[in-house]
Specification:
By secondary structure, the protein is mostly helical. Helices cover about 80% and strands about 0% of the residues. Helix 12 packs antiparallel against helix 13.
Length: about 425
Amino acid sequence: MRAARERALGGTVGLVRVLLLFDSSLYAAVTPVLPYYARTLHASKPAVGLLAAAYTLGLLPGSILGGWVAARLGVRRTTLIGLVAFAFAVAGFGFAANLVTLDLLRVIQGVACGLIWGGALTWVIAVTPIERRGATLGSVIGAATFGTLIGPLLGTAAVATSPALAFSAVGAISLALAAWVQRHPNPTPLRPEPSRAAAHSRRRWPRLTSPAARGLLLGGWMVLLEAMTFGATNVLLPLRLARFGASGVVIGAVFLGSAALSAALSTFIGRVTDHSGPRRPITAGLVLSAVLVPALALPHSTGLLAALSILALGGAMTGYMIPAVSTMTDSAENLGIALVVTSTLFNLAYAAGETIGAPAAAIISQASSDAVPLVGLGVLMLLTLIAARRLDTTPPTSPPREPAGAGEPRPGAERNVALHG
């Protein structure tokens, strides 16, 4: 029975890794295509910037919609809806002939992303044993990070061949993934949740001073802080590297290197979190990030800045991101809050951070220098470190193992509605 349970868990984790890798690759695919649309559609810089931001703009409402749908239809149906919507939006993107249509389709892709993440992330959290949650989260988030490596290659292929051909093929892949999800067995939660959980969570939410509530809020803040930092560096670093003579290939290699390092470290950091708790990796990640991120303003050579960027973005920040998500899930369970709410908060925090970070850093840097927003982020990390040192790391209580057949719905059994479908 244990072997069958392990195979089922491995199959679900593998499926979710592929889904998040696919979704993240499409998020990153638009970057090489932007100059193509600027040239062929005679688009201005602000218009191209809006197209680049449209995905994240869709992700904000998509995160809320994903949580709402998952709570009512179940995580599998939510993931299916997201993949089918994504398929048609991305295929249409390849045939669009004006910027308004491209913007609209990109927003729809972002909404679909919220559905995919809301369903898939909740799914994998629910079926993973508590003692292995950090490693599993590291694995699936690492796969999503790796997807950002593939995305620019897809965009380059679209420009080299034709956007219609490349993005139609991606749409077909999305439908194939939807078929895989449809064939995958219904998720069975390890920890049954009573139907009155929503009312229970409403009673707990006002207790924002409780250790578990602080852990949930702090974890969400760290996700937002990391996303803000990525948004800021995505604007500042390419311009800074170009100022020192770096070519487009070198700039791309820096971001590829940081994503590769993050993907390589994610599962390891998750295992450390499972073994020793989230406090130590969070402390190490925040301390290193608070030093390395402001230090990005110091180098005046391409080589040193490139190496420092890879270490800061791919290593130090990954150090606190994985345990931050683990902290959110553990705290939510200690509060009795449905896991789908945790996934929704994660998606909202990341989307909001990306949306805030890039324009805020650009505006502050324009008015002062690159050092000001980077130092400001470092200060926020140090303040977060102070709060993290008081973090309650008590994990949720593991329930006894369910007997054979416990995963099958029974008449009158009260199950977590967010997991079925």
